[in-house]
Amino acid sequence: MSKFDAIRSFYDHEVNEAVQSIVRHPMMKALMNFTFPDTDEKIWIDQLKVTDSIFDFQKNFISHTIRKILETSSQGLTTSGFEKLDKNTSYLYISNHRDIVLDTSLLNLVLLEKDYIMTSSAIGDNLVEQNFLHILAKLNRNFLVQRGLSLREQLKSSQLMSDYIYDLLKSENRSVWIAQREGRTKDGNDATQQGVLKMLAMASQHHSLAEFFKNLKIVPLSISYEYDPTDVLKMPQILAKQKDEVYIKAKDEDFTTMMSGVLGQKKRIHLHAGDVLDFDLDAISASQDNKNKQLQSIAQLIDESIIRNYRLWPTNYIAYDIINHTDKFSDKYSQQEKLLFERRLEMRIDVDDEVLKNGFLSMYANPVNNQLRYTEKLFN
């Protein structure tokens, strides 16, 4: 028994039994038929039956699924910044969060293809309540973030997760992915929650904060989708927030969002790996004694990297110009691209509802606003 059993992914010696338990599940059949449409079912069943490690499962099956998703619902994935990383070093990737499944899956595909250490990735336990999804998540080296706990239980859960992440990075030399905030960003404003950093710091013990976070080798990761396939699904939550109302999820809403993110059109996608947080942490430690202020400054470092390196697409500039009644960025897109975006807008929401329209446009325009603010800060 391990103290991490409640949240950890499978050990390799558990993989074959787990695969055998779902190999004939209807959802596995659908997944494999999507991934290998021209392959006889017996072939992938036989291959699954002899799979006995997470790496083999990801390399031989899931990586092909992600490539198929890219092929059918995007215009390709590009990357930058990864060449600065060491192939034998484990990193803590902290990223903005747009899509439940794809954010971490795309990162792992990139790491696999570039021969870097792949990640163990955080996922909310509310997303894997079905037994099949729970097993599939653990086969993809996901670990569970426990939701819906009392305050006392949250503290224990945070300590457990902090210890587990540190153990993965330092004892197993396993990279880790976590989102910069709890849940996906709905409005395009990417900001690191200080609570995420507080959770990580719970494993620091006798180290100074700067020393501890340097030891984690944090890589801020910017994930940019030209089209958010779940944009319209995020609108009810955005509207509830604007009206200061409590938003209650519909039954199976998370699963619907998951499938929409996977299958919906994304156009171009870009992942940028920022510089490892290092010397800036020393500067924070030297200039500030207050722990909360240090955490706030570290969060700002992550935010600045993610925002600065976020790939802005024509959709972002178009939304900015429409919502601000300007042509400031008209050189960043063609009239055809603008017409296509406006048609998407009209097809997905009631454009006569100004609140709805502004909420939808802001989701795409806010990354431009954030980069502009960062640029102004840089030159002031």
Give the number of DSSP strands.
7
CATH architecture of the largest domain: 3-Layer(aba) Sandwich
Largest sheet: 7 strands, mixed
Order of SSEs, N→C? Answer: HHHHEEHEHEHEHHEHHEHHHHH
Mean pLDDT: 92
Task: Find the CATH topology of the largest domain.
Answer: Glycerol-3-phosphate (1)-acyltransferase
Number of domains: 2
Cα shape: globular
User: How are the strands of the biggest sheet laid out side by side?
Assistant: 1-7-6-2-5-3-4
User: In angstroms, what separates the terminal alpha carbons?
Assistant: 56 Å
Low-confidence stretches: none
Q: Kindly provide the name of the CATH class of the largest domain.
A: Alpha Beta
Radius of gyration: 21 Å
Strand content: 5-15%
Structural class: alpha/beta
Number of helices: 16
